[in-house]
Each structure stands twice: as structure tokens, then as C-alpha cells.
Amino acid sequence: MNNIEIANDLIDFIYSSPSAFHATENSAQNLNTLAYSELKMEDKWTIEKGGKYYVRYNSSAIFSFEIGTEAPSETGFKIIAAHTDSPTIKIKPNPEIYHNKNDIKLNIETYGGGIWMTWLDRPLSIAGRVFVKSQNVLEPKEILVNIKKPVALIPNMAIHLNRTINEGLKINPQKHLLPLFAQYSTVSGENELLKLVASELGIDYTEILDFELNFYETEKGSLVGANNEFISTGRLDNIGMMHAGLLSLNGINDKKSTKILAFFDNEEIGSETKQGAHSPILRIILERINTALNYSQEDYYRAIARSFMISADMAHAIHPNSPEMHDPVNQPVLNGGPVIKINANQKYTTDAQSGSVFEGLCQKAEVAVQRFVNRSDIKGGGTLGSIATVQIPIRAVDIGNPMLAMHSIREFAGVNDHANLIKVFKQFWEE
Ligand code: ZN
After folding, report:
1. How far is the CA of 394 from the centre of ligand 1 (A)?
2. What is the CATH T-level fold of the domain 3-86+234-430, as seen in this structure?
3. Residues 380-396: pLDDT tens digits?
């Protein structure tokens, strides 16, 4: 695939991944086509050198591993980490709010730090998962759902009623972000959301025990620019990095080292969940790989000491209209190559050693590399690397592709950056 084709493949992947559950499911499908087979956390693992496996956790995190022909104690675990979740608007239980005997709104909560004003006036759809009864009360049946058509919209207020709106709208989520969902006269009057979801799934709404559903922009992403230089779509942060990791697994020659993709959930709310980077989940999986291969605890600790993790999460490019918000020297640009993220207070896990490793990989792959540090008077964000390495003390670097409009309903990145980062990831697997 050329760079444009790779970017379009990313747009397709994001379009079919409107929730963390769908991003996980689509990763699994992708791994299936690469001859990976699924293991279950609750089963006994039988794994072989040269084998390819993956395991899901909570249906919203997924970890793949290709077992090397050499022991991890000799080659280390090679890990590329990313996250499956993005800021979104989630639907509360009993969501219908009947307004004025005319409109039905849905009650919502925000998830993560979205730029919520960008969600206004966009046709929205709904995706996520529901649970229905099964034979075993402790194991209800999970079903993913994606409505795929516009079913709701959060309308702006007319400028005539709010003359200062262009000076900034202070958004109160309980007041300003309730999507309009239906008209009272067209429905029977109760459980309208569950009825819509159930009809999509071909079940009766009374079968649904519980749900986790979020809104997403119905319109698909697209290429933008006079020469298709840019990608405009939601959830580039961080499905872009998941997609790059998955594509990098294709056509690797190295068979010696154990190669791991670790896609956690809940990065946008601090990673402190059982399926987030702050949980012991990745450590448990690495230990189980080591045990299933009949290596000792000593071998495991040696493997950890040799391991390396690339924590991949999107990065900030310099904003063309607000360059003063950035560091005066280190100013990553779109299509200028992947970005190493550095922070003196270790909000990013990068140190000079792990930064050198990534710099070396880029040089060898002949891909330009950039560096990001915050303006010293701006706090900035954090990501997975520092959190995950509290659980497993391995060498790690925080990197990502440069982008604009992070956490907008539509984010913006460079076509060539995406293809180039895949090259760097491939180089990592080959070392
Ligand atoms: Zn992110």
C-alpha cells in the first residue's frame, strides 16, 4: 500500500471502531488475518515458540504476542503500547428526558477531556455493548452494537439568543450537551433508546440487562489538503497508533524476539481500571507467557531487564494559528515524522537512553524524527508510558505522531507520518 492507501485504511479502521469495544474487536479481526489465535484469560495456556496469540480483557483491551524462537531472557519482550479509548459522550441509565411534551432528550455523562463544543450540530450515532441474560447469571451474554445512522444531535443556540457565543461558550454538560433524540408524538413513550438498540440487534428490549453506550460522529473521516496531505477524522488519538501497530506486524523477518502489542483501555480517564495501563494486566500476561514456556522466575526478571516498550500515543504538532503556545525551539510539524515526548517531571516516561533507542530506530528506518516538550509554563498532558512502567519496570519511550485538534470530535494529522511510523515500528521488530 502507498501512503494514501495506508491513510485510507486507517480512516476505514477508525470508522468501524466507534467505541473501545469495537476498536478491540477490529484489532482481533486484524490479528486473525495474520494467523494469530485467541487465548482466554480463564483458560490454561499452551503456547509454542513461533506461535502467535492474543487475549482480550473486558472486551475493551487486547494484547497480542508473537512468541520468539529465542527466550525472552535473551531478547527481552518488545512491546508497542497504545490505548483503545477516546473522549466521548456516554449515555446514562434511564436516559430519556421528556421535554415540553414534544422532544425527547437523552441524559449523558462526558468521558475524558473532549473539546465538547465540537460535538454540537453534528449528526450523532450510538455504539457500544449491551448484556442480555444467559444460562449463567455470573456470565451474561455480551453483544456489540453500532447503530451506524444518525439518531441524535446536540443543537447550538442561535446567535440571536446568545450574542456573546463567539467569545466562548462555557459548557455545562448537564445543560448544554443533552442530544435531541426523538419527538414525543412519534414514539410510544418509554425506553425508546433500548427499543432502538434492541431492534438493531433483533431482540426484545426487555432482554437487555445493562449497557455501555456512547455517541460518535456519524460522518466518516476523510483526506484533506490540496494534495491529500492530511487526515481528518475522530479518534486518531489513539486508534491511529493501534492501526500503526497492527500494520507493522505484517511481513516481519525476525523470528527470534517476542513481539507484543498492548492496547489498554481507559487512558483518557487516568488508566486506573482493571483494563487500564495502571493495572497489573500486562505484567500478568508477560508472566504467563514466561511460565507457559517453562522458564524460571529468574528468567522472567532477566527478560524484564532486557525489554523495551514504545508507548505510542498521538502528539501535538505546532498550531499554525497559535505557535506561541508551544516551546520556542522544539516545534513538531505535521508530516515531519514521529515525535519523541519529553518531560522533566516524567509525565512522559522518555529518558535519554530510551529516547536514544527511538532516535536510532528512526535513523535506521530513514524516517525523520521530532521532539516535543511543553512550554515551561504550560502543564500539558500525560500518557501510558509512565503509568505502565510503574507496574513493570522496563525501559520505555513515549512517542506519537504529530496532530492538531487533539480531543476534538474531528482530529487532524499527516498522511505521511502514519506510513513513516509504521516503518519505524517494523524496524523495532526487526532489531
Ligand atoms: Zn491518547
Report:
1. 21
2. Aminopeptidase (3.40.630)
3. 888 888 899 989 999 99
